[in-house]
Amino acid sequence: MIPIGDNVFFFTRRKPIIVYLLIGIHLALFLWELKLELSGELGAFVNAWGIVPAQINGAIASALSGNPAAWIVVLMRGTFLLTGMFLHGSFSQILGNLIFLWVFGRTVESVLGYGRFLLLYLVSGLLTGLLQVLVEPSLTIPLIGANGAIASILGAFVLKFPQSKIYTILPLLIIFIPIELPAFFYLFWWFVQQLSYGIGSLNIPGGVNSFSIGYWAHGAGIVIGAVFMKLLSQKGRGQ
């Protein structure tokens, strides 16, 4: 199933500037990853800037044991919760995330506005990254990708427009059939799609995004996005 649009966005007038910006950043960094892959430096780069729970928890343990200098390392490692969400480990992962960002993000941005949409994207990415560290503290394989942030956008969209329809293409061999599906369907399809994100993987020694509980923790972004949208909707009614 490939979503290509919804029946809500065209009724809004706000240009999705933040969506354009985020897509540009993700693509630019992925091209940089491809360059590093050719030079054999990609593995070191991903391990340095991705989310590695064992490294973050090791730094925290050292700091709590009485090593003040370790707090600097904790701060540095903490920034990787943000940088890791802008890296991707395969062509299928970045393609899937950017399609969802384009289809659902434009409408959510038009509702929230530029600032609040960017806040949702970054905060949900940070929170899902932190959750990944908490649920699998000993994981040594990097976790990368905007999956958690994209999940939050999906959650916000479905909460705000539960009755909306998503224009979808159903690929059958060489035939592409256009259909309409309810937005709720993509809450299920988002999880199914994660299973295909190993297709077209980049050559990263040691691998990334092991299909463990830490990887699936980014699904919490759906709840984060729905809560974010619910709170803003209540605030709007109260004004």
UniProtKB/TrEMBL annotation:
Keywords: Hydrolase, Membrane, Protease, Transmembrane, Transmembrane helix. It is a multi-pass membrane protein. GO terms for cellular component: membrane. Pfam families: Rhomboid. InterPro entries: Peptidase_S54_rhomboid_dom, Rhomboid-like_sf, Rhomboid_protease_S54. Residues 81-234 form the Peptidase S54 rhomboid domain. Its main location: membrane. GO terms for biological process: proteolysis. SUPFAM superfamilies: Rhomboid-like. The chain crosses the membrane at residues 17-34, 85-105, 117-135, 141-159, 166-192, 212-232. GO terms for molecular function: serine-type endopeptidase activity. It is found in: Membrane. Belongs to the peptidase S54 family. This is Rhomboid family intramembrane serine protease.
